[in-house]
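=== RUN LOG ===
request id: a7f3
mode: sequence -> structure
chains: 1
length: 395
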Amino acid sequence: MELSKNLKLLVRLFVYFFIGSLAWLIFYSQAYYGLSTDLGTHVNRILPIINGEYFFPHPLFHYIVYYFHKLSFLLTLHWTLLDISVVLLSLLVVIIFDIIYRIAVYFHKDNYSLISLLIVSLSLLFVTPIYLSFFNTNLYLGQWGPNTWHSPTIFMIKPFSLICLFFMVKINQGNEWYNKPVILLLFSLFMALSAFAKPSFIISFAPATGIFLLMYYWKNFKLYFKIFILFLPTLAVLIYQYIATYSNDIISTADMKDEIIFTFFGVMKYYTPNVVISLILAIAFPFFLFIIDLKNCIKNQYLMISWFNVIISFALASFLAEKFKFGQAAFVFGYIISLFLLFVFSVFHFLKLLKSKSMIKWKNAKIIFLVLIYFLHLYSGIFYFFRYLLTKSYM
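=== RESULT ===
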């Protein structure tokens, strides 16, 4: 039975409230109950960054928290910077969910119910690598994965990454609305802003876009030039960040100074007993989906640019590292974000596969196999969420 419009709205609002409450629980616990997190470090940097005493290459999170903090005083709320951070991160989780859900509706509104798409979108906030305790007691470190809860800047960049990937494909496909001059200008500035949120995404997405263009728009030099122009503001930001972080002598931020070095899977091997097994555990569902439905996956441009992004980001995480902050695995964050995008667009492809006339739903062994693999990712992610709350360790 079709739900009424008002009831659909109530269901959506309930799900949004539920997600926001779960997010608030974990971020509030980080702030005040000792969960291991980067939140405190970032909050402590806010005022020095604002006062020009500390250089941080991607300060978008810090500026947003600061100005919301100022607004809270104008509204006589007098929330602390930590309180604002908890609220902002909870709101970001809801925004990420909303973007996922809207993309799901865009692809599948005619084939799936509201409840189905809400549940699928919710699951994408929790999926992680498949957890095998006998292989690696750490679920996050070594396997990494599409969802982790300890890094504020990861939540800052995820909305940017979803929108950038979706828009990039639409622009390349020649969709009229997405190619309006105003939209192209805003999109270009939006990508540049994403680098201020966290450059980890864009440094893999830019070359992934290049490979994508070569594969699907071979010899379309006019399109190559247009995309290059769109990336110019982002390139300027990245050059500035690189020079400021790795070249200039900035005494006030000596702890940020470092060098980029080449390493042969050094960071990966530092955290996992076997890089290949960790990779398989991280990408099992998207990988087997790709193998099983190869022909249609290759036709899916959203999925293929996601795969190119994973390949580039995995290579960066495997072969590059910071010399003095080696263990912080700076280049792994791009891989984490790329895995998140890969799962989103793999799941949406799978939903299309389920409705394919060539498939006998639930009687097909391949479909059942893929459902079981995805369930293992989801079970591991829910386990990780509650283990994090109980043990206070995100590792």
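=== NOTES ===
The chain has a mean pLDDT of 92.
The CA atoms of residues 139 and 280 lie 13 Å apart.
=== END ===
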